[in-house]
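[step 3/7] fold_predict: job queued, chain A
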Amino acid sequence: MSLDSLAEARQIIAAWGYDCNQVRPRSSIGRIPPEEFAARYR
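[step 4/7] structure written:
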């Protein structure tokens, strides 16, 4: 992978961070994504 600019790198990192922190299921909260967990307990 070749990055053409700092802005492109930031965009890729932001997408990874969102996926890691909001989308991927977590075993500690019942194998559901954090967004779903938060929605259930609002």
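[step 5/7] annotate
The radius of gyration is 14 Å.
The longest helix spans residues 6-23.
exit 0
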